[in-house]
Amino acid sequence: MTVVLPPPPQFGAPIAVKPAPEVLAFLATRRSASAVTLTAPAPGPEEIDILMRLATHVPDHGKLAPWRFVILEGEPKSRFAGRLEALARARGDQTAAAKLAKLKIPPLAIAVISAPRDGPIPEWEQRLSAGAVCTTLLYAALALGYGANWITDWYAYDAEAKAILGLSPDKDGLEEKVAGFILLGTPREPPLERERPDPAALVSRWRDTA
Predict the structure, then answer these.
(1) Residues in CB range of 37: below 8 A, 6 or more apart
(2) How many Å apart are CA 65 and CA 48, to the nearest integer?
(3) What is the pLDDT of residues 75-116, one digit of tens each?
(4) How many Cβ atoms sit within 10 Å of the Cβ of residue 167?
(5) Residue 168 pLDDT more than 90?
(6) Could you give the angle at the alpha carbon of 84 between the alpha carbons of 81 and 89, nearest 5°?
């Protein structure tokens, strides 16, 4: 699939707000693919550049860019998974080792690292921005025609695993965290629709009862 994005708007340029029914149709049928069904091909260098550009178009209070990316593919990805497996097996944790299949099988993974900055913007808002990056990256990959899955699992939270990935335990006085691993490839089979929540059961309207 050949994709040509419009050039980035200049700073301060007006951006038209207009309906995009094709985007609504995409969101209405969006479905993540199972990680273990993802195989080659995965997005190539030019498509990864597109994904990076789109993933950074998210709400970001204070314009801090409180996130960064670690791309895992090819032999480096295999070595990373191998080190995690060795870590799990050294602890005698076969369950944790088995869970690495979701990371090993897809040909490409992009780790989104939440890296909040010290200052007046609440840390919580900066963490939420990293989640928005994950969502946008996931959706952009699907819109390119690839299968994608957003996972965390134990190696997103384990201190030794995070050190292997290269996270800083104390950056600007705040801890870097894995917001998610976005796993990418071409699904061997189409994903099946899953059960969805009923919005009516989740929505209320505020009323002043004072």
Answers:
(1) 147, 187, 188, 189, 191
(2) 18
(3) 999 999 999 999 999 999 999 999 999 999 999 999 999 999
(4) 21
(5) no
(6) 125
- Tell which residue, 103, 157, 112, 148, has the closest CA to residue 131: 112
> How far apart are the C-alpha atoms of 104 and 95, rounded to whole Å?
15
Pick the closest to residue 103 from 124, 116, 87 (CA basis): 87
